[in-house]
Design brief:
The chain is an alpha/beta fold and 243 residues long. The protein has helices at 21-26, 53-69, 80-94, 126-136, 141-144, 147-165, 192-196, 222-240, and strands at residues 5-10, 31-35, 73-78, 103-106, 180-185, 206-211. It is built from eight helices and six strands; from the N terminus they run E-H-E-H-E-H-E-H-H-H-E-H-E-H.
Length: 243
Amino acid sequence: MDKQIRLICLPYAGGSRYSFREFQKSFPSFIELIAVEYPGRGARFSEPLLSDVNELVDDIFLQVRKVVEGGHYAVYGHSMGGLVGWLLARKIAAAAMQAPLHLFISGTAGPASKTGHGKKRHLLPRAEFLEEIRMLAGSPDEVMKDTDLVNYYEPILRSDFKACECYRHDPSTAPLQLPFTVITGTEEELTEDEIRLWEQETTGKINFIRLQGNHFFIMEQCVAMTEIIKQPLLSALDRCQVF
């Protein structure tokens, strides 16, 4: 049997299933990318946005249930997607279903961090809110100058920011029992202590990696990200003896 693993990919705030199209170009054939679509955008534009992260995780769980039940898989999320991916792994564990072989997280502090979740950017007036988006370097200048595109993305971003910023961590929750890889950019506004908070969330091996770049370093580091994701998945498949 050919070695095969599915990688559930969870977008950042304002993202869609198409946010990972550059990744798809560089992934090896044994990794099947499963890009999740959040409600209220892309192919699900007609559906209401979800600004509660737990409701969003419930929605995603239903989307990926067949993937979880269908064989070996892993989970990857960037920024908001990192929080969502971790919560999804917890929901899968609570359902006593097959755990992911690996959880990949990029561009976000551990969920116990009070810095990021204490912000209330989703409540800012429009001009200040859009300036926050510019500072994150998440949207090209041509998008920010296009009124129609800004009008389209602003409610999506506000809803996503609210989902993250209103999340409250429960310190009594038992850690997961699976390996993590946590990747952050060298120019992100994240302290080492905030990043290391991920150590509280698993009893498994955890690997911390820094790549050159700002919060959206993944856009410039597709090849490096591919290698980071590929190696532990190859090792996991070896251990599962699915060759």
